[in-house]
Predict the 3D structure of the following.
Amino acid sequence: MSENQTTTAPRAEEGQAADFDAIVVGAGFSGLYMLHSLRKLGLSVRVYEQGDGVGGTWYWNRYPGARCDSESVYYMFTDHMSEEILGEWNWSERYAAQPEILRYLEFVTDKMDLRRDIQFNAKVVSAVYDPERRRWDIRLADGGAASARFLITAVGCLSSTNTPKFPGIDTFAGESYHTGTWPHEGVDFTGKRVAVIGTGATAVQAVPEIAKQAAHVWVFQRTPNYDIPGRNRPLDSGYAEEVKADYRDLWQKARESGFGLPYQIVERSAVDYSPEERQPIFEAAWAKGGFYMGLETFSDYLVNRESNDTVSEFVRSKIREMVNDPAVAELLAPKDHPFFTKRPPLENGYYETFNRPNVTLLDARSTPIEEITPHGVRMDGHEYEVDAIVYATGFDAMTGTLFGMGITGRDGLRLQDKWRDGPLTYLGLTTRGFPNLFVITGPQSPSVLSNMPVAIEQNVEWIAGLIQYLGEHGLDTAEPAQEAEDKWVEHHNQVASATLLLGTDSWWVGANIPGKPRTLYPYVGGVGAFRSLCQDVAEKGYEGLVLTKEAAPAAAGG
Ligand code: NA7
C-alpha cells in the first residue's frame, strides 16, 4: 500500500479493543517519524500521546527561555522525511526557541497528514504481551484499550519529571512549577520573589529570563556546570540557504559522526600542545559558541583526564571574567567534575545574570536545602521567603517513562524488574522477553549523546527496516537472543568504562534519582559507529535477533 493510500483501519466492535499492526507511544520527533515510516510500509498504526498536541519535549517544556542546544539547521527532519518540508521550513534563530520548534512539529504533522492516526490525551498505563496471540494489549488511563503486533515506544529520554522530596514541599502556599510541565498560558513573574532550584541546562536557560521580570531571584545551586556560550543570534537567510545547498553532505556527516553534528573533529590531545598553543584553539571555539568547544578543540576529553583539565580550567577562567563578584564566580566555577562528564549547558546571558542586583546565587551543596515552608525555602537556618518556586530539577531520564507504562513481556516479566540492576538491551532497541517491543532512543543507544534527530532517524529507520524484513519473510516476531543481548550489554559497559563519564554524578548515570542503578544510560560509542553496527546486523539478516513465525496460521493477527 502506498503512503497516501494508507489509512488506519482498526478492527473494533463497540466496546472492544481496537487492533492495529503497530502502536507507537508518543508524538514527538520520534513518534511522528515512526508513524510516517510505518505508514509507508502499509501498516495500520495508532499513536497514543499523553498531551493534547504533538511535540513531546517541545510540548511540555514551555518554561521561559526554553530553546534547543543543537543548532536549529541540524535539529530537524531530513529529506528522508520530506524533501518538501525541508525546502519550505526556515528557522529564525541559530538555536530555535520552544515555540518555534513546536510550530515546526505542528507544521510537519499537518503537512504529512499525521494527525488522523494520533490519539491525544491518551496515556498508556499498561502494555502487556500476550504470547498466545503474539500481540501487545494496551490500556489507557481513560479505560480505552487496543492491541497491536508491534509496540514502539517514542516517549523521549526526558519525559518523567523529577521533583526531589523536600520535607514540607506540599505546604508551600505560593506558586510551584516544574520546568518540564510548564503551564501553557505561561507565568508572569513580574514583581515576584522567585526561588529557582537547580542549575542544569534548563535553569541556565530559564534564570536569565525570569530575572528580567522578577523582583528577586534566588538560585539554589548544588552543582555548577561548565556552561558554554551559545551565542544565539537571528539566522540570516544566506546561512540557511548555504546549509540547505549542502544538506546531503552535512547530514551524512552528522550521521557518521560521534555526536550527531557535522562538525570538524580533529583527532588530537590537548596534552600534546603547550598552553600557548592551546589558548587560541580554545578562544576560537569559545567565540564561535556552542558544542564546538567540546567537539572541535581536542578530541580526548572524555578519556584523558589531563587533557580534560586544560579545557575545564579554560572554562573556569572565562566564568571568572564574566562574573563581577569573585566569590560568586568561584561558586559558579565547577571543580568537582571534569568538563563534558555532565551535559554542558549552552548559556545565553546566564553568567552575566549573576551581576544583576536582583539575583542571588546560593550554595545548596555545602548546606543542602532543609525544607520547603509555607513561605519559601529554608536552607542553612535561613528562610528565603518567595512567591514562587521553580523546580528546574530535571528528570528520571531514559527509564522513568518506560517503567511508568506498565510494560510486561513474556511470563509476566515487568520491564522494571528485568532492568532492576540497570537496562539489559540489544542495541538499546530491543530487550529479551519482550518480543516486538522496540524502544526509540532507549538506554544503551546513543540517544542523548547525539543531536537527537540524528539518533531518532537512525533508530526509526532501523525499526521500520526490521518490520519490513519480517513482513517480506513471512515472520511475526523479533526478540534478541540471550547471547546477543549479553554481548551488547558487555560492549556498552566496556565502552562506558573507558571514559570518565561513570565517575561523575549526573543524570546520564542515573545519579540524580535516589536508588536508580548507576550505569551509563546512553551509549557513548558514537552515533556513527552505532549506525554501522546496526546496519551490519540488518545486512546479516538481523543477526542476534530470534525471528519467528506464527505456528498456527489461523491465529495470525495484524
Ligand atoms: P538536570 O540537568 O538534571 O538538572 C537538574 C538540576 O537540579 C541540577 O542542577 C541538580 O543538581 C538540581 N537538583 C536536583 N535535585 C536537587 C536537590 N535535591 N537539591 C538541589 N538541587 C537539586 O535537568 P535539566 O532539566 O536542567 O536538564 C536536563 C537535560 O535537558 C539537559 O541535560 C539537556 O540534555 C536538556 P545536581 O547537578 O544533581 O547536583
